[in-house]
Amino acid sequence: MVKKVNMAVSQSKESAKSLNQTKSRASIQRMFDEVAPTYDFLNHLLSLGIDNYWRAKATSKAKKLLEKNPAPRILDVATGTGDLADSMAKISGAKVTALDLSPEMLAIARKKYPQITFFEGYAEKLPFQDASFDVVSAGFGVRNFEDLGKGMREFHRVLKPGGYAFIIEPMIPRNEVMKKLYLIYFKKVLPKIAGLFSKSSFAYDYLPHSVEKFPQTTAFTAILKKNGFKTAEFFPMTFETSILYIASK
To answer: Averaged in consecutive runs of 10 residues, what is the pLDDT profile of the chain (249 residues)?
Structure first.
């Protein structure tokens, strides 16, 4: 029995690595559809509730940059169950639109936040006109894009001149001691905790692999600039376990 369990865990990890290598839009959609019922609970549990602070931090910075705009239009991409979209909606006068490729995630988001307009779609082909939004945000979803460069060009396209992109992603700490502790939690502890509450251990094996593969700090700001953004900077948060990128058009 133990041997079978170990084999299943090993297969799940190999599948996660394989998804990271291919990362097709259809496979990402299936994965998020599968984890949707426990997604919110596990997000808050596994981050010890700090994910709410990260969203609030991004919203606070957006609010300051938009203080002269009485009615900003905001698009939240890869919205999941809509928590970042809801946070951004607290900015005075903001009209928020949100988009995700997972219909199961969107079904939950629409029940939680009926005041927000949700669309099904994906980042590489946003169903909006050029220069439609003052802000495009994305919380913990950009690393899942099938084509990162194309996704960033779409962010840039739908932003108004002078608009901003706000992107939150997990971060692997640069301090060697913190990095070691973080990876132990991320690779060994987190998938086991998630497995107690979710039918998809696969998704939480995929998570650390996707974070390790995603370009960090100056590597990602370089990608933002390469795909049209005039400026790009980053702000590590909570002992460099998460990072906020802000780019301007």
So the answer is: 39 46 82 93 90 98 97 98 98 98 98 97 97 98 97 98 98 96 91 80 81 96 98 97 98
Please state which CATH number belongs to domain 1-249: 3.40.50.150
- Cα distances (Å, whole numbers) of residue 47 to 10, 51, 238: 24, 6, 11
Rounded to whole angstroms, the Cα distance separating 8 from 63 reads 46
Concatenate the DSSP letters of all residues of 179-232 into one string.
HHHHHHIIIIIHHHHHHHH-S-HHHHHHHHHHHHHS--HHHHHHHHHHTT-SEE
Nearest to 209 by CA among 172, 238, 161, 163: 172
2 backbone dihedrals φ, ψ, rounded to 5°:
-60, -40
CA distance 125 to 147: 11
Task: Supply 100's token pair.
Answer: 């995700």
Angle at 27 between CA 167 and CA 77, to 5 degrees: 25
Q: Where are the domains of the chain?
A: 1-249
Q: Which ranges in the chain belong to alpha helices (H)?
A: 2-22, 25-46, 50-65, 83-88, 103-112, 148-158, 176-184, 190-197, 201-213, 217-226
**176 — alpha (psi -120 to 50), left (phi > 0) or beta?**
alpha
Residue type for position 49? G
Which residue in this structure is represented by tokens 């394989």? 18
154 neighbors 127 (Cβ within 8 angstroms): no
- Give the three-state DSSP class for 108: helix
Q: Rounded to the nearest 10 degrees, how much is the dihedral formed by the CA atoms of 75, 21, 8, 49?
A: -30
pLDDT at 10: 41
